[in-house]
Amino acid sequence: MASKVAKWRKIYQYLFMGFYLILGPVAVFLYTKGFENFFYAFVPFAVGLPSIRFNHLRSIERKEEIT
What we know:
- The protein is mostly helical.
- It has one domain (3-66).
- The protein contains 2 helices and no strands.
- The radius of gyration is 16 Å and the shape is elongated.
- The two termini are 14 Å apart.
């Protein structure tokens, strides 16, 4: 595995942990307390982040195959 891909996998791992373990429960808590707007802002990131990660890592792997 190339060093760039390994570096980005680690960055995404910390990003996922911070996002889902901290912001997820906070969003659900605020949603139950009546702050609906924060929860609706969280949903697109929760759904989109895995696809962003997948596409970004795949593009790095393609660039490394070419060179």
